[in-house]
Amino acid sequence: MAAMLQPQIILLKEGTDTSQGKAQVVSNINACTAVADAVRTTLGPRGMDKLIHDDKGNTTISNDGATIMKLLDIVHPAAKILVDIAKSQDSEVGDGTTTVVLLAGEFLKEAKPFIEDGVYPQNLIRSYRTASYLAIEKIKEIAVSIEGKSMEEKKSLLAKCAATSLSSKLIGGEKEFFASMVVDAVMAIGDDDRLNLIGMKKVPGGHMRDSFLVNGVAFKKTFSYAGFEQQPKKFLNPKILLLNIELELKSEKENAEIRLTDPMQYQSIVDAEWNIIYDKLDKCVKSGAKIILSRLAIGDLATQYFADRDIFCAGRVAEEDLRRVAAATGGTVQTSVNNIVDEVLGSCEVFEEKQVGNERFNIFSGCPSGQTATIVLRGGADQFIEEAERSLHDAIMIVRRALKNSTVVPGGGAIDMEISRFLRMHARSIAGKSQLFINSYAKALEIIPRQLCDNAGFDATDVLNKLRQKHALGTGANYGVDINTGGIADSFANFVWEPAVVKINAINAATEAACLILSVDETVKNPKSESAQGEAAASAMAGRGRGGAAFRGRGGRGMRRR
């Protein structure tokens, strides 16, 4: 009786929402499965695209898992983890973002019946980690190196990897055309890791086959003053001067007071300002440069001055473009025109201004450093060009990774089926519950070939049975889904390749995310604190409003109530 009368212990603030135990783990799994379902249909060459319309009225059409995950405004705390792994896969490898979300969702889906039956999550987590370690070792064992090949062979192999990445994108119909362009762009920047050395310029209009690669720098014609049209638009082997100063007639900004006794003295001050600008322009001309680019404005006076001396100039060049011109031409950006020596001037074989669509582009090609490239993209709609840019970004990342970690694995679900078979065989040698858990992990890996079939409209069960039989024989490790016929085919022979690092990263990240979500058994949500802050702010505003009203009352008409 005494125990019943004991007061209830209140630990958390009133109104706190707590959910814990098995139900919470299952709820988190359901949320993650819902997120995976959102991107499920975008996987593979026959994947569909998503149209996302945000509150600002922007419309995005995309097939890229990371882009879709970023644009989905997910509020569920556990499901946000899937957004994070998609972002990390995108920044680390560039491709496989849909794969990583699908795998994580499927691992959790397979774990759900065990959790509902009362299995302790830590046992599942331990088995999943073991399975992930075994899977990654198996990938490393199967992977084929592309090291030691000639440059031509290497280019061809890298183009195959890029084409595999592009096949699932909106521009998949022209994958060979873009794959060779991507490989040339990556080869142009050499060992440099900075992605911003590959520029992408979008010009609406034309066909996507009108896109082209510039082995150098291309940027849109900047704002220009009168006199610009008189300047030459093509040079062979010119010297290039890069500046970060204004070449404009400016009144001096000193807040000094000058007292004049004679009007002629005023003229001398005006003349001094003109002399300063003419001195700067004269030094630019004497440097021997035929092309002058500046990050800041080049005024009408300077434009005409250079036009009279057959020099091309462009002001207000974007900083990123100026940096790429510096990297390509071997020039150095100057902050002063004094003492310009030949060492700071850049050079290129050909400079020309060219019409692309309804835009004019300044193009520097045949650069000595050759450490940069520019892809000019053409296409009908803006959304289409933006999606093409995202697709090429993925392909560029893939080619860079394949160059650095030069091992590739068969795509089209072949590697997933082979790991799945290997894990099933391994599970039989284990006594205890973890045999079931590793088996469920192996089954989850089959989601990739299954989804490829579903998205292409094939009978997934039929194709998977053929694949299981082929892989079980031990000779069909490279067999995956054949998207064209609806059967199975040797992915390696069909050049459906992807860098091993993509798969390793995807399995690592998906397993980590699944284990993290399984290890959370309680969520504490405290909406009171948020509303309390809101109420405090509202009451402060109301108090200020009342104070203001009272103040106004005392000042004017309210005097008679004294």
Automatic annotation (TrEMBL):
Main location per the UniProt record: cytoplasm
GO CC term (a single one): chaperonin-containing T-complex
UniProt region (Disordered), positions on chain: 528-562
Low complexity bias locations: 532-543
Entries under CDD domains matching the protein: TCP1_eta
PROSITE patterns per the UniProt record, alphabetical: TCP1_1 (PS00750), TCP1_2 (PS00751), TCP1_3 (PS00995)
Subcellular location: Cytoplasm
Keyword Nucleus belongs to the record: no
UniProt xrefs under Gene3D superfamilies: GroEL, GroEL-like equatorial domain, TCP-1-like chaperonin intermediate domain
Keywords: ATP-binding, Chaperone, Cytoplasm, Nucleotide-binding
Role noted for this protein: Molecular chaperone; assists the folding of proteins upon ATP hydrolysis. Known to play a role, in vitro, in the folding of actin and tubulin.
Subunit and interaction comment: Heterooligomeric complex that forms two stacked rings.
Entry's family note: Belongs to the TCP-1 chaperonin family.
PANTHER family: CHAPERONIN
Protein name in the entry: T-complex protein 1 subunit eta
Species annotation: Dioscorea cayennensis subsp. rotundata (White Guinea yam)
